[in-house]
Write a structure and sequence with these properties.
Chain B: Its cofactor is Mo-bis(molybdopterin guanine dinucleotide). The structure holds two protein chains of two kinds. By secondary structure, chain A is α+β, with helices and mostly antiparallel strands. Chain A contains seven helices and 18 strands. Chain A folds into two domains: 185 residues, Alpha-Beta Plaits; 88 residues, Sandwich (Immunoglobulin-like), CATH 2.60.40.10. In chain B, the strands form nine sheets. An eight-stranded mixed β-sheet of chain B has the order 13-12-27-26-25-14-15-22, with helices on one face. In chain B, strands 33-34-36-35-38-32-37 form a seven-stranded mixed β-sheet. Chain B has a five-stranded mixed β-sheet with strand order 3-2-1-4-5. In chain B, helix 1 crosses helix 2. Classes of the chains: A alpha+beta, B alpha/beta.
Chain lengths: 281, 1000
Amino acid sequence: MEKWHIVVDIEKCVGCFNCMLACKDEHVGNKWLPYTDEQQKHENKWINPEKHERGSVPFTEICFVPHMCQHCDEAPCEKKFPDVVTKRPDGIVLLDVKKAKGKKELADACPYGAIVWNEELKTAQKCTLCAHLLDDGWTEPRCVQSCPLRALSIVHCEDTEFEKLADKQNLKPITNGSNQPRVLYKNLYKFNKVFVAGALAFLDGDIEKAAVDARISLSLNGKKLLEQKADFFGEFKFDKLPKNSGTFTVECLMEGYNPIRQEVTVGNECVKMELMTFEGR
Amino acid sequence: MGRKADKGLEIFDKTVLGGTLFALDKTLNALALAFPEFKMELRKKNITVQMKLRDESFGRLLKFKDGFVTSNNGIFKDADVEMVFEDENVARKVVALIRDQAEFVNAAKSGSLALNGPDEEAMWFSALLLKVFAFDVLYAKNYGTKMPNGEKRYVTGTNGGPLFVYVKDDKIVRVTPIDFDEEDAEPWTITARGKKFSPPKRTTAAPYAMGWKSMVYSPDRVLYPMKRVDFDPDGERNYENRGVSGYERISWDEALDIVSREIIRVRQTYGAGAVFHTSGSHHTWGNCGYYLSAAKRFFNCLGATNAALNPDSWEGFAWGATHHYGGSARNGGCEPYSTVEDCMQNSEMIVFWSSDPESTAGVYGAQEGTIRREWIKKLGIPVVHIDPYFNSTAAFMGGRWIAPYPGTDAALALAIANVWMNQGTYDKEYVADRTKGFEKWEEYVMGKTDGVPKTPEWQEEHTGVAARTVRALAEEWGRKKTYLACGGITSFGCAGRTAFGTEWARAMVCLIAMQGLGKPGVNFGGLQYGTPLDTRFFFPGYADGGFSGDYMGTGAGVNIYNRMPQSPSVNSETQLIPRLRIPEAIMDGKTEANHMGVYSVQAQFAKIKYPAPGHSTVKMYYKYGGSHIGTQPDSKRFARMYRCDSLEFVVNQSIWMEGEAKFADIILPACTNFERWDIAESANSGGYIDKTYLQNNHRVVFVQHKCIEPLGESKSDFDIFQAVANKLGLWQVFSEGNSEYDWAKRYFECTDLPKKISWHKLLKKGYYVVPPLPENRRDPVAFNWFAKGIKKDTPELSPLPSEHYGRYNEGLQTPSGKFEFEAQTLKMFDPNDEERLPICTYIPSWEGRDAKELYSRFPLQLISPHVKYSFHTMGDGKDSNINDIEEHRKLVDGFRYWIFRMNPEDAQKRGLKENDVIEVYNDRGSVLCALEVTQRLPKGIVHSFEACADYKPLGEPGYAVEKNGCINNLTPSRFITKNAHGLAVNSCLVEVRKWEGENK
């Protein structure tokens, strides 16, 4: 049967927080029984784009990663609390409003931190994917409907069909995927990968100029992995490197000048290399 | 026409009139039977009304008694109210069910229609007649779209896009952006580099639009008229306790009585000028309820001192760039037409310079531009961002980020010009044909006049940006057709709000002129403004004056006068206070500043002086909302101002209890635009930003439904003004007897909407999408006419005919008609003004790294751009959902602090870490914030947005440490340049330390 799937494209998220605001707009002060009780006005968020910063001046990058209930097919919350958690045939995971009361430990059952504790109502709550609206004929939950670029989007199709789409678009779960989440992410590299960036210059008389014609390569254990041409600022960036992936050799070539070779160790953070200046042969 | 025909017409008119009046009592009784609420209305008065022709040749008496109406033909003496028509012709036209607005206004103006009797009875009868025309809306509630689940869907507008508003049981359930349906117009398509691009069929919403429901139901709403507990209009007023004392609820009667008595008292005691009114720059959305409509008309009727507005978003362009290329009607802004398509098709690079539309949404642009900027990523056009802060646009689009020290952008720009001049990589033909005075500027840039060539190496010591980087940018720019985006929309930008920010804006237009402004691919814009929409469809913006009747003080004289019949209104009091000097005017009793006139370039050289000759200083302040204290520079001045005794009375008409509202003697509770009627278009301001809606992907015009009843005892601004006007005998003068619903309908009739959709249908559906024109009828590209040297063919009426010194519509608004690198207007004004020479130069800031003594004490340069998640103060505070955005405020120890951003090295040097509560201070003040440590700033530059909504001093207002993040407590009030009335808040030095004090 057709089921709900959510796709999050990190490159399209502009950090407007409309998803979080739309969720609050729908659920704070509104009771959608039997799906869910009201959301707590403050502190509780059922979806939240979390900011992630990488790199340093001037190679700073910002991205936002929306966190929400993953509506897992192998939901850890369901396994621990089968009487409270319902997996609907259309994929949506819901908490039983009555049975979730007083069960603070439900919040701990979610490895994604997506179940929150509503202190005012003394109950565990989470995203319902606006099931009350989808069941009423809406085609998108509130977070998706308010997303300007549909960085958040929803797909209603057979699981097999969605698998093909996930393959084609290289969609990945935010963690290892063992819980079979129904929320898949695109361009996660901005969140979980690192880059090596740097600038190249040469001296034209006594004027320092950007080495716009330089070619830069990245090698690991003598094997050339990536190569690129410097941009018009004489700068380069090798992106999508796994964290802690080792010590690389950066080789910079420019015709008429001595090659520059430097070792760079990629750890948990992005690497900004100091300015490298070509010297004449 | 012969006499016989005249006679025939007279008889016809009398018959129609007789029939109409004969049916009137029956109509009223029938409506009362159908609608109990109308019956209640009828029951309110037991009076008699004589309707008659002036010569008493025809008359009918209406008797209202206990909710029933009866009537008789004839002339009767001692009726309570008389409605007198000059003759049968006037009467027929006015009374006819489809009223002729122009005839009505004419009749009222010429005295051909008069309503005599006690105000209260006359008003009641007049309103009753209008209610008959609006009964299906007012009583049958026949508007909005019924949803299957019992909710009703309405439409409203906001500063961040239009919204669907779902309502059940008089409560807003949700607000959403608008998804178009199948009958709405298909969008346009741009074909660029082999790809086709069309916007999705929906509107977008800014975060502050998505937060509106939480603002409507804010616990900070003022729900009842309030009086300061220790304010006694007939005894002790205790001015010094403003901002400290609490408030008590009073009745509307008492509030209106105090306010109207005070208006009359100060005006009769002190004469012209004694009443002062200001509002924030932006109001709740809607063309009739806007401050440039309802408030404008009210204060014109009253006679009041106004604020002379500084062009706060345009400063640098208005006081600087306009001298090179005109555009005074746009405050120095440039044409936008068809630049989105041209940019996508022809440009090879985009430079965003002090431009962050992803934060500012241009202005009112919701997230419309975001969609188009994603296309730029798809087209692979390289982008560069120049901004001291790694802003949201840079974060979204990628590309190289260049961070000059605040206020040094002009130096960077001069170095780019220097490279082009040295290498000859500019459009020499264009410069020769289309510009004037280039040699003068070239002498300066090349160092011939002062021995200092403005090279990339020279700029490095001022800007901190490597010469190599600037040279590389200049060379690439010299090679590639480049679009230049300044500010979120165009001609705005933080850099224009620095000391001598005029020079940055001037440099921007000079650079683009060197590369051939208006040639394909060379223009201003960052995909925010200039979509291919239909500019011919007539629907005005809010600044076009609504029903203000003010043909000079708003855009009405340009855009509405020939379409919307209304009686004119004029403020007979000429006194003005420069907005940036309001506190000085009140506290010192005198001030002066240049006045930004928009009709000509040189108008800005004139000064306004306060007090005006023969005018009183201000004794009463009628303030609209509480925003100045969050948005104006050195804003503690306002707290001190309110607490001085020269202001005898302060009334604030406010939706929320925040900011300056807490300094008033009387607070009048205003409702939001969700609680009143109006009509408007998304992102259409009109006025200074002609065709602002070209930021949108669709022209969406809408009625603004009264979605819910006003909360508590709050009233719409219109109804409050009407109530005060009634007390002053101004009821007909203020509103022509019309309600705000009537005005919305009258407004509809003046636009092109009736050609496309009936009022009835618009009331149901709520909005109309104006179809875009076919591709071959799109507007010409901005300034392309100028590049070609042909007549101006872009669709706008500015500049005025008299602003062409040569033949009309040929050339720019400069004396030569050419782009002037050496500005003749500045040369004629003062060729030796070192702060603004006829050519663009770099002038080091008085509050930057060159201000040695100050810099040694406060070594951090603070920029405070327009806030991202709140529309100025509209969104922040009020316990709205906006405050839960972790990028907006940070929750530390139970309080949501304003965010202050700093580079890790600067933080480490001060022993500070993420989420520390810190004190940001300088000689002007001290503000608490929560720290964000970030690589979005280089060392030495710090960032915190402007416009915190509420002012929370930890002690004496005007002096104490401020807790809530009122960053403008710290910014300088010095003018951008001495002969300008412009702010320079981004030239602000501060120091930061961990806050160890008490927080209460």
